[in-house]
Amino acid sequence: MNNTIHPCIWFDGNAIEAATFYCDIFSNSKITADTPMVVNFEIWGKKIMGLNGGPMFKINPSISIFVNCKTVEQTTEIYNRLAEDGAPLMALGKYDWSECYGWTKDKFGLTWQIMQGAEEKICPSLLFTGEKFGKAEAAIKFYTSVFDNSNIDVLQLYPNETPFAGKVLFSESKVNQFNLIAMDGPGEHAFVFNEAVSFVVECQNQEEIDYYWNKLSEGGQESQCGWLKDQFGISWQIVPAILGKLMSDPEKASRVVQAFMQMKKFDIEKLIQT
Fold first, then answer.
1. Strand 63-69 vs strand 111-116: parallel, antiparallel, or unpaired?
2. Least enclosed by CB within 10 Å: which of 63, 157, 213, 263?
3. Residue 226 CB: number of other CB atoms within 10 A?
């Protein structure tokens, strides 16, 4: 199964403002869909969904967007633009792992880790904190087992002589060719995973929906409208790829919404027949 995976960011009614802001900062970026509920955009060819979900969930640093830039100059420019009216978490500067790195929260609440590296790359980064601390390795091994075309490229653990021996210092994986960074976050943190950043899996048929729903919800929690939390607290949306087409039909859109609002796991046949 070769399913498209992309992050979804929960905004309080200002998804188009955020998408416009991001696309103005990053080259080769564009807004691909703009509706009252959903704004889709691409940064460096990677799809991101902005969801106008209201004030229920607040973005926090447990899931940030990790950006590799080619040069120090590019890193500095992107960091400074994203930091406008935001709040720095780690000041831009030289660290053991990079000549130029910074972590900042932007004015919409989303956090970004910007680093000078070998190539331009953008992907989500998971930070396992609190009761989830120490579970990063189990999580990435689980995700790479659930999805085809997956592998762990980098798995760096804290050294044995440290208090966090065996925990994940840094990892990078491909989950069905979707890049994903994961780390354990030692110490006290005032945030944990929530629905403000989720991952959308687009499925071609009911068999795929059933497979991912059953696998990812095991030990987790099922919710409404195709949403679930997995055993590690990460939120997923398991949706039919045809949903966008159904929602674009003015004669069916409202009935489709009414139908899936009553569902936990999506039933494609019922949506088509509405």
1. parallel
2. 263
3. 22
Q: Band of the pLDDT at 270, cuts 50, 70, 90?
A: confident
Q: Is the pLDDT of residue 31 over 80?
A: yes
pLDDT the model gives residue 193: 97
Cα separation, 8 vs 10, whole angstroms: 7
From start to end of the chain, where are the E strands?
Answer: 4-11, 29-34, 38-43, 46-52, 63-69, 87-95, 98-105, 111-116, 121-128, 151-157, 168-175, 178-184, 197-203, 221-222, 227-229, 235-240
- The pair of structure tokens assigned to 65 is 């967007």
pLDDT band at 1 (very low <50, low <70, confident <90, very high): low
CA distance 192 to 129: 6
In 57-205, where does DSSP find H-type helix? 72-83, 136-146
DSSP-assigned letter for residue 159: P
Q: Where is 215: in which H helix or E strand? A: helix 206-217
pTM: 0.94
220-251 pLDDT, tens digit each? 999 999 999 999 999 999 999 988 888 777 77
Task: Provide the b/e sequence for 198-221 (b: ≥16 CB within 10 Å).
Answer: bbbbbbeeeebbebbbeebbeebe
